[in-house]
Amino acid sequence: MITEKPEYKSKADFTPAVQFVIFCAVAIGLITAGNVIAMGIIFMLYGLDALKLIMAMNLTSPQAIQSLWLLQIVGTTLPILFTPIVFSKFIVRNTSAYLLAGTRFPLALLAIVFSLMIMSSPVMEVLINLNQKMVLPDFLKAIEDWMRSSEEAAQKATEALLKMNTWLDMVKCLLLVGLVTAIAEELMFRGTLQTIFIRWTNNPHLAIWITATLFSAFHIEFFGFLPRLMLGVFFGYFAYWSGSVWPAVWAHFLNNGSAVVLTYLYQHKKLNIDPNNQHAFNYSLYALSLIITVALLLIYRKTALERNNLSAH
């Protein structure tokens, strides 16, 4: 007797709410496993003292910095990269819809994204300055103190990771902090999470803003929340209108990569302006930046949707 293979029910039949819970569980599990593996590698390579230095945020020794890189890559970046891949391939079994990794979009979109990321800098600066001036009510002072100490710790870790002695260090940071991080976070947030929220809310705009909020909160840097939220919104529309995550990856890479290059140039006295300091433009430039940013978003949308309409026919 010949028996047919059983037909497995697609896990994509899970409701979006259940998908979100499963996705979070996968992410937490992989990040936890990644951190355990990273700490095990650090212990084998450098001993217990290196782990103590990391816990105390004493990042002056080379071993501490190397340990921090291991925690960043093995404990955070790789788990973030693997989470959407595992979820889309083994849970919902629909990688094309939940990763948006297709490349069928107009290359002109990449040029528009490049221009938009440059021209939106003054707008982002307004959000940065507003966020930095945030003060909580007196009865929440303990929370504000914790937020500021967390922010300082994150800034200290970032400065240690971006300490670049040679141009090869800069290339390493461009690849790891710029490119790999951009790919991992965009597959996770704009690829999978945004898709889940679009299906959950039936409202792409609401889904984009929810995803951008989670994206900003995920970084646990409270005094950079607003500019990162707006970047997440940009990335969300780049992916949604084009149907591909890659324009968002490109934008994310431009944001991270420019910070790496500017930091390297400043460290080696080839740039006089500290990239960590904010410099006020005048009101005319703020207004012009806003107008051009909106115009470029509309041009991006028109270009992307025209291509999608042609493809549909």
Characterise this structure.
It is globular and about 60 Å long. α1 runs antiparallel to α8 (167-201), α2 (48-55) packs across α3 and α10 (225-242) packs parallel to α12 (283-312). The protein has 12 helices and no strands. The protein has helices spanning 16-46, 48-55, 62-91, 95-99, 108-119, 121-132, 141-161, 167-201, 204-218, 225-242, 246-267, 283-312. It folds into 2 domains: 11-99, no CATH class; 100-312, no CATH class. 76% of the residues lie in helices and 0% in strands. The longest helix is centred in the middle third of the chain and has 35 residues, at 167-201. The protein starts with 15 loop residues before the first helix and ends with a helix. Residues 1-11 have low confidence and may be disordered. By secondary structure, the protein is mainly α.
What is the helix tally?
Answer: 12
**Which percent bin holds the helix content?**
over 70%
Category by helix and strand content: mainly alpha
The largest pleated sheet is described as: none
Instruction: Give the distance, in angstroms, between the N- and C-terminal Cα atoms.
Output: 46 Å
SS elements, strand count: 0
The succession of helices and strands, N to C, reads: HHHHHHHHHHHH
| Overall average residue pLDDT | 90
| Apparent shape | globular
* Strand composition percent: under 5%
User: Over the alpha carbons, how many angstroms does the gyration radius reach?
Assistant: 21 Å
Uncertain residue segments: 1-11
